[in-house]
Amino acid sequence: MATTQHTLSIAFIGGGNMAAALAAGLAGRLCPASAIHVLEINESAHDPWLAKGMTVSARPDDALAGRKVWVYAVKPQQLQEAVAATRAWLDDDTLVLSVAAGIRSDTLAAWLGTPDAPWQRLVRCMPNTPALVGAGATGLAALPGATAQDRDLAQSILGSVGLTVWVADDAALDAVTALSGSGPAYVFLFLESLIQGAQALGLDARQARQLALATLDGATQLAAESTESPAVLRERVTSKGGTTAAALAVFAQAQLPQTVAHAMAAAAQRGRELGDEFGGAAGSAAKEGSQAGRK
Ligand SMILES: NC(=O)C1=CN([C@@H]2O[C@H](COP(=O)(O)OP(=O)(O)OC[C@H]3O[C@@H](n4cnc5c(N)ncnc54)[C@H](OP(=O)(O)O)[C@@H]3O)[C@@H](O)[C@H]2O)C=CC1
Ligand SMILES: O=C(O)[C@@H]1CCC=N1
Question: Are 24 and 52 in contact (CB under 8 A)?
Fold first, then answer.
């Protein structure tokens, strides 16, 4: 990938949790912090960005112009308004990335472009917060009009903060959202539960946290490096009539696998609902409203 620290300049529109994770992961890896600009409407949230050496504005301004990449990182419900407020600064050369859950590429392309010419240089991404420590996992899907260079650039940006997987379309991105986008929260919940369970059994908070973290880390590393399936690795831990079997019987009774599948289906369904809510007629209305915003 030819992109260098000297040529890449990025704007984040929305400076919340996901932008913070991505920007911190990118700075120093793919571009200097000074090449990152953040548009964040809450001035009270500006100091951490400035402290990292990034520039920040509370309203759209010329700092957006001429950036090679824009990353929309507002909540899905805020995206249409954020696009309408910023698109006057969009250059034909700008690659647009969106990390918003649910909002379909076609919908966003119509908001960014004109009714006759939806924006084409668009890659939808579904990253996750471990990007903050360079251990993210991102699903990406490009509009057919995105160029090979656009795809390479998106790949290089998200690839600099972790694993990337290209998927076919918005439906697949809803599945990615349910797995790796929301997934860190499932893992943190399990981690919290392990720590609480250990403390209930008499370990102190520090011991519980250390052992729980090392267990999750060790088990995932083993699974990643092993040629055997997670099911086989699980069986290796489970001595007949032993302690693990006693614990797994409780998980089975609580229908843990079904519950996880059910939870993921709910996440994917919520992504589809957000897509439906802002697609179709809402997308058409936005097209009319936002056309006037182009320079
Ligand atoms: N958090 C995560 O783990 C992941 C999030 N995502 C996606 O990333 C997006 C952002 O999520 P997250 O970072 O958690 O959300 P946050 O609410 O933390 O961040 C969004 C920020 O953008 C601000 N904002 C709202 N409107 C505008 C605007 N027009 N211009 C500039 N800033 C604006 C918000 O202000 P205010 O709070 O006042 O509204 C807020 O500070 C979502 O679409 C989500 O689906 C994707 C993958 C993982
Ligand atoms: O909860 C959400 O909607 C966002 C998308 C994936 C993770 N967080």
Answer: yes
On whether the pTM is more than 0.80, the answer is: yes
What DSSP designation does 38 have? E
Cα dihedral: 132, 136, 139, 140 (round 10): 50
Q: Which pLDDT belongs to residue 286?
A: 39
* 176-228 pLDDT tens trace: 999 999 999 999 999 999 999 999 999 999 999 999 999 999 999 999 999 99
State the alpha helices, DSSP H only, in 160-229. Answer: 170-176, 183-200, 205-225
**Ligand 1 centroid, distance to 222 Cα (angstroms):** 34
- Per-residue model confidence (pLDDT) at position 114: 81
pLDDT digits (tens, 9 = 90+) for 97-112: 999 999 999 999 999 9
- Judged by its nearest atom, the ligand closest to the C-alpha of residue 70 is 1
77-91 confidence digits (pLDDT tens): 999 999 999 999 999
CB of residue 179 inside a 6 A radius of ligand 1: no
Pairing of strands 122-126, 136-142: antiparallel
Structure ipTM: 0.99
Q: Looking at the CA of 178, name the nearest ligand.
A: 2
Question: Residue ranges per domain, the chain?
Answer: 10-181+273-291, 183-254
As its CATH architecture, domain 183-254 has Orthogonal Bundle (1.10)
Q: Which atom of ligand 2 is nearest to the CA of 101?
A: 5
Ligand 1 atom nearest 78 alpha carbon? 26
DSSP states of 149-164: HHHHHHHHHHHTTEEE
**From ligand 2's centre to the CA of 236, what distance in Å?**
34
Q: What superfamily does domain 10-181+273-291 belong to in CATH? A: NAD(P)-binding Rossmann-like Domain (3.40.50.720)
> Which letter does DSSP use for residue 31 in this model?
B
Q: Is 75 annotated as a binding residue?
A: yes
